[in-house]
């Protein structure tokens, strides 16, 4: 590791620790509410302004041709698996179905464009799109536990962003996703293959 890389790692660790400490305090003070999530979103955007601490060489995407074209790096998580912060690094086309999280979630842009579509459940058991927002540097989206969204990245795009959750992704066993082919709701399995990057 070069001297510059080591200095960047140490500064990144301090910046992440400070942001997560602030976000813990925000949730404690404001709860899991729209106002609380708005404050968490602003704090995560402050961290995302330090794009120099999260370069592509430190968080590379997977090689071409894999089933899921994104690597998920865990950069913070409490001992009880709360306040989990990830860097998601993707290469090429990426789409998810409409899904919830069962915990609060915030996505903040570092590099590239990630389209988020928002939905509500319909009376007949389906979903209806209610809006959309492109997450890029300087923008973010936030979700209460039952709110629905999907993620879309274009074929030639390269995206790095933060995903933060009230509970770690590999402990979210009760998420639902909507399968449009047969208009059914299915279990969205807890995320696996998370790359450990705390302190890296």
Give an overview in words:
A hairpin with a 4-residue loop joins strand 10 and strand 11 (184-188). With 200 residues, the protein is an alpha+beta fold. Strands 7-4-9-2-1-12 form a six-stranded mixed β-sheet. The chain contains two helices and twelve strands. It is 22% helix and 38% strand.
Quick take:
The protein is α+β, with helices and mostly antiparallel strands and 200 residues long.
**What is the spatial order of strands in the main beta sheet?**
7-4-9-2-1-12
Number of helices: 2
CATH class group: Mainly Beta
Number of domains: 1
Helix content range:
10-25%
Radius of gyration: 17 Å
Instruction: Assign the CATH topology.
Output: Jelly Rolls
Give the averaged pLDDT, no decimals: 94
Instruction: Give a quick account of the main beta sheet: strands, pairing sense, barrel closure.
Output: 6 strands, mixed
The CATH architecture can be named as: Sandwich
- What is the quaternary state of this protein? single chain
List descriptors.
200 residues, alpha+beta, Jelly Rolls, six-stranded mixed β-sheet, four-stranded antiparallel β-sheet, 2 helices, 12 strands, 22% helix
List the helices and strands and how they pair.
Layout: H1 3-30, H2 34-48, E1 70-76, E2 82-91, E3 94-95, E4 105-111, E5 114-121, E6 127-135, E7 140-143, E8 148-153, E9 158-167, E10 175-179, E11 184-188, E12 195-196
Parallel strand pairs: 1-12
Antiparallel strand pairs: 1-2, 2-9, 3-8, 4-7, 4-9, 5-6, 5-8, 10-11
Helix pairs in contact: 1-2
């Amino acid at each position: 590791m070069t001297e510059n890389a080591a200095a960047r790692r140490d500064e990144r660790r301090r910046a992440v620790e400070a942001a997560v400490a602030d976000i813990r305090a925000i949730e404690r003070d404001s709860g899991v509410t729209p106002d609380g999530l708005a404050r968490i979103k602003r704090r995560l955007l402050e961290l995302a302004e330090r794009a120099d601490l999260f370069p592509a060489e430190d968080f590379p995407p997977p090689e071409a041709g894999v089933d899921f074209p994104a690597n998920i790096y865990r950069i913070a998580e409490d001992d009880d698996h709360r306040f989990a912060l990830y860097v998601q690094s993707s290469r090429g086309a990426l789409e998810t179905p409409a899904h919830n999280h069962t915990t609060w979630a915030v996505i903040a842009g570092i590099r590239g464009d990630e389209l988020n579509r928002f939905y509500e459940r319909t009376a007949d058991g389906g979903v209806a799109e209610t809006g959309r927002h492109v997450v890029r540097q300087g923008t973010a989206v936030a979700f209460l536990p039952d709110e629905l969204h999907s993620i879309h990245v274009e074929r030639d795009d390269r995206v790095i962003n933060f995903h933060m959750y009230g509970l770690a992704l590999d402990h979210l066993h009760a998420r639902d996703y909507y399968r449009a082919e047969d208009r059914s709701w299915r279990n969205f399995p807890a995320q696996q293959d998370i790359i450990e990057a705390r302190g890296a």
